[in-house]
Design brief:
The protein has about 210 residues and is α/β, with parallel strands linked by helices. Helices cover about 35% and strands about 25% of the residues. It is globular. It starts with a helix and ends with a strand.
Length: about 210
C-alpha cells in the first residue's frame, strides 16, 4: 500500500474528512522532509510508510482533542505537529517555532512550497518570544520534561488557552512534578492508526490565564 493510501485510510480512522488537496499537500510535505533530511537530519525515521504513521498520523491524531483558535507549535523541528495541523485545518492560524536556525529555514521553505497561507515561522528561543497576539493552543512534541514546557510557554497563552504536550507512555512521574499553578489532570490516550506504540496528549490549563 502506498504512503498516500495509508494516510487516507488513517485520517478516516481518526474521524477526519480531509479533501484530496490536503492529502496531496501532506504527501508533498513528506517528500520535503525526505529531501531536507539528507542535509539537516530532521528525523531518524526515514522509511516513507513509517514516516506516515510516526509523523503525519501521529500529528493528525491530536486535532480532535484541541480547542479552536490560534496555535503555536513549540520546538517544531521538522514541522511536527504544526504543519500537518495547518494543512488539515486551513482556517486555523499556526505559528511554527524552533530555536535552531537550520530547522527554521526548513520550516520557512515548507510554508512557501506547500503554500500554507495560515502558517508563519518564528526562529528563536521560546522563552524570549513575545508574539503580537497570544495563542489559544500551545503544543509541543519535543520538550523532554512537562514542567519545563509549561514554565517556558505559559506567557504565550491567551486567557482560557491550553498547553498541549504530546507524549509516548502516560508520563506519571512528569505529571507529579508539574507546578501547582498548572492543572494537567486531563491526559488522553491517542489511538494512532498503524502505529504500534503508546501515545498520550496532556492538556494543561494555567491559573490566571
Amino acid at each position: 500500500m502506498s504512503a498516500e493510501a495509508i494516510l487516507a485510510d488513517g485520517s478516516r480512522a481518526l474521524g477526519l474528512s480531509l479533501p484530496r488537496a490536503a492529502l496531496t499537500q501532506l504527501v508533498a510535505f513528506l517528500a520535503l522532509m525526505k529531501k531536507w533530511n539528507r542535509v539537516f537530519n530532521l528525523t531518524a525515521v526515514r522509511d516513507p510508510v513509517a514516516m506516515v504513521s510516526h509523523h503525519l498520523l501521529d500529528s493528525l491524531a491530536v486535532i480532535q482533542h484541541l480547542p479552536p483558535g490560534r496555535l503555536a507549535d513549540i520546538g517544531s523541528g521538522a514541522g511536527l505537529p504544526g504543519i500537518p495541523i495547518a494543512i488539515a485545518q486551513p482556517e486555523r492560524a499556526v505559528a511554527l517555532n524552533d530555536a535552531n536556525e537550520k530547522k527554521a529555514a526548513f520550516l520557512r521553505q515548507a510554508v512557501i512550497e506547500l503554500k500554507l497561507d495560515n502558517a508563519q515561522v518564528h526562529a528563536g528561543r521560546v522563552e524570549s518570544w513575545k508574539p503580537a497576539e497570544p495563542f489559544d493552543v500551545v503544543i509541543c512534541r519535543g520538550f523532554s520534561e512537562l514542567r519545563e514546557f509549561v514554565a517556558a510557554c505559559r506567557h504565550l497563552l491567551a486567557p482560557g488557552g491550553v498547553l498541549a504536550a504530546m507524549k509516548g507512555t502516560r508520563p506519571e512521574k512528569e505529571l507529579a512534578r508539574v507546578p501547582s499553578w498548572c492543572d494537567c489532570h486531563d491526559v488522553r490516550r491517542l489511538n494512532v492508526p498503524v502505529l504500534e506504540a503508546e501515545r498520550h496528549l496532556v492538556l494543561c490549563s494555567v491559573a490566571g490565564r
